[in-house]
Write a structure and sequence with these properties.
The protein is an alpha+beta fold. The chain has 3 domains: 19-30 and 364-403, no CATH class; 34-77 and 165-304 and 323-361, no CATH class; 86-164, no CATH class. It is built from 16 helices and 11 strands. A 5-stranded antiparallel beta sheet has the order 1-2-3-4-5. Strands 6-7-8 form a 3-stranded antiparallel beta sheet. A 3-stranded antiparallel beta sheet has the order 9-10-11, with no helix packed on it. A hairpin with a 4-residue loop joins β2 (121-123) and β3 (128-132).
């Protein structure tokens, strides 16, 4: 029996609430995305996305305009903004048009087209970028990561969109945001492989720290390949961090990130041309916002999507237009710590995507109805339910007891 009625579950005229309702309110508050994120950040990103009236296309366009003239995208630009990053395509002009149409219609790739993709694209710096069996190869070396091949190819063959951008950098960095990359090539655990086999697991738990390490490692590895690394330390610190991070379970990776900040190892990061590295070097404490789902980006059926929060609290996926400005900006924001301005902008973008964020009252009408229904159940079965503070003890049909 539940005791005296309260203002939530039975009588709204009573100010005091029962322990069960108080605990349910606490649990609901604890499950909210980033409750400590300042309201000013929400308001700014809601304005950036276009206010209350905005279509999906306008939202992406507004976000792209916001990112366009910041260091968050400059890292992926070529020195000459008019330079075409693709020097030579494996397809003749007419065949390329037909192939683009097939990619847009998702009608498959023929054997002849696969052979052309194996020959690869010659980039402006001499890099050979080829695609074999769904994998990307850079200068005949395989990039061991799952990629949205069709989206990569469509951007590669769009002469207007690609102009002025280092696509190899973009492609490598993006692949480090939504999947775990293991340097040792360790096989995944059996259950993980089982879920992947049947398509039950569509994302992996990558925190901002994981994205920071993986994207920085892939980009520095690319710089070493081109022998253009500016700092000697860059040849070691990303590889060392990747070695220390590889093979760990998600919980172990989170603990490693906390120790990395607590022991001030981030203060020893060398100067870097990647803007998010300096943000990690300036972090004084690991201030992750609670309940924000990782990773912020997922690849579903070969399409990259941004994970966003709807008005009713469910997580939805918004397909990301493959525009270099957006991709470069999302790489930088997603690789930045939550404590940074860019990390907060990314979370606020996810939370304000469908509609402007409102810190609604937890004990709203649907919540009160649910609690009133719970009270009715408890009063209907007084001999099978017991309440002690914020705990429930229920006796099942077979006589077993369950604590809730």
């Amino acid at each position: 029996m539940i005791g005296e009625a309260c203002g939530i579950c039975q009588d709204e005229n009573i100010d005091t609430n029962c322990s069960i309702c108080i605990r349910c309110v606490e649990l609901t508050e604890e499950s909210k995305w980033a409750p400590s994120l300042p309201l000013e950040v929400h308001q700014r990103m809601a304005d950036v996305l276009g206010g209350p009236v905005r279509s999906l296309r306008k939202r992406w366009k507004n976000l792209e305009r916001f990112m366009a003239h910041t260091p968050d995208v400059d890292w992926a630009r070529l020195d000459d903004p008019e330079m075409d990053p693709v020097r030579l395509s494996p397809f003749p002009e007419e065949e390329e048009k037909i192939f683009i149409e097939k990619l847009e219609n998702r009608s498959g790739i023929s054997g002849y087209e696969k052979e052309r993709l194996e020959e690869g694209f010659v980039m402006s710096d001499g890099t050979l970028l080829s695609f074999i069996d769904g994998r990307m190869w850079v200068d005949r070396r395989p990039h061991e990561a799952r990629i949205p091949t069709e989206q990569y190819l469509l951007l590669l063959m769009n002469s207007d969109e690609r102009k002025g951008w280092d696509l190899v950098k973009l492609f490598l960095a993006i692949s480090g945001l939504y999947q775990t990359i293991d340097l040792q090539g360790r096989p995944q655990r059996y259950m993980h492989r089982f879920h992947r086999l049947f398509g039950h697991m569509e994302r992996e738990l990558l925190s901002p720290f994981d994205a920071f390490v993986q994207s920085s490692f892939l980009l520095d590895q690319n710089e070493r390949r081109k022998k253009k690394s500016m700092f000697r330390e860059e040849e070691t610190w990303t590889h060392e961090l990747m070695n220390r991070l590889s093979g760990r379970r998600p919980r172990q990776r989170i603990k490693f990130a906390r120790r990395f900040i607590r022991n001030n190892e981030n203060k020893m990061l060398p100067p870097s041309k990647w803007p998010w590295v300096q943000r990690w070097a300036e972090v004084s404490k690991n201030a992750d916002h609670s309940n924000v789902s990782y990773p912020f980006m997922v690849s579903t059926k070969g399409v990259l999507s941004l994970r966003t929060l709807s008005k009713n609290g469910s997580v939805r996926r918004a397909p990301i237009p493959f525009h270099p400005v957006l991709l470069a900006g999302l790489v930088s924001w997603g690789s930045s710590p939550h404590a940074s301005k860019q990390g907060e902008w990314l979370i606020a973008t996810q939370m304000n995507w469908s509609s402007a964020y409102e810190n609604a009252e937890t004990a709203d009408v649907p919540f009160r109805r649910s609690m009133q229904f719970l009270r009715g159940v408890l009063e209907q079965f007084p001999n099978d339910t017991w309440v002690h503070r914020d705990r429930l003890l229920v006796r099942g049909m077979l006589g077993h007891f369950y604590e809730i």
